[in-house]
């Protein structure tokens, strides 16, 4: 049985780094630049020039941050870095999946908190949801 070692290494590092980013964002509400850099470097393990276009996946986050605020630069850098691993098409799928997961999560939180007479949180760390979308795009698409 032949295995593609660079692809296996990339998948393992990508998973571990996205888990670290998610944990860090949940705990501290920041995403360290070093983790984003490591994710970007993971793209070199199975490099394809077409995947460079994946950086463009960060543009909607940059525009949203500039126009509306409320989003940190770490989320933008995370999607740019993940875009180098995923490429543009998978990055778009990752964004859609991650933001949909966040919407579903918020809906359940909203219903649960309202049933208890409390307000639902107004903000969540975004990295865990984006990471979920990135992993789904990497392994399933």
Short description:
The chain has about 140 residues and is mostly helical.
**Count of the domains:** 1
Structural class: mainly alpha
The average pLDDT value, as a whole number, equals: 94
Biggest β-sheet strands, sense, barrel? none
Secondary-structure element string: HHHHH
Name the beta content range.
under 5%
Helix fraction by DSSP (H/I, runs of at least 4): over 70%
Low-pLDDT runs of 5+ residues are: none
Please work out how many helical segments DSSP would assign. Answer: 5
Number of separate strands:
0
Would you spell out the secondary-structure blueprint of this structure?
Blueprint: H1 5-28, H2 33-42, H3 59-68, H4 73-115, H5 127-140
Describe the 3D structure.
By secondary structure, this protein is mainly α. It has helices spanning 5-28, 33-42, 59-68, 73-115, 127-140. It has one domain (5-140). Helix 2 (33-42) packs across helix 4 (73-115). The longest helix is centred in the middle third of the chain and has 43 residues, at 73-115. The two termini are 23 Å apart. 33% of the residues are buried. The mean pLDDT is 94.
Structural descriptors:
mainly alpha, globular, 141 residues, single chain, 5 helices
């Amino acid at each position: 049985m032949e295995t593609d070692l660079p692809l296996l290494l990339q998948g393992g590092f990508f998973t571990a780094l996205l888990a670290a980013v998610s944990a860090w964002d949940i705990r501290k509400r920041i995403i360290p630049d070093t983790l984003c850099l490591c994710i970007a470097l993971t793209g070199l393990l199975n490099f394809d020039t077409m995947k460079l276009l994946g950086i463009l996946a960060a543009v909607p986050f940059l525009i949203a941050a500039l126009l509306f605020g409320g989003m940190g630069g770490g989320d933008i850098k995370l999607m740019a870095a993940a875009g180098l691993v995923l490429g543009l098409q998978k990055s778009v799928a990752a964004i859609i999946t991650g933001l949909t997961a966040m919407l579903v999560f918020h809906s359940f939180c909203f219903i649960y908190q309202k049933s208890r007479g409390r307000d639902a949180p107004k903000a969540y760390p975004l990295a865990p949801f984006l990471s979920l979308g990135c992993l789904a795009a990497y392994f399933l698409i």
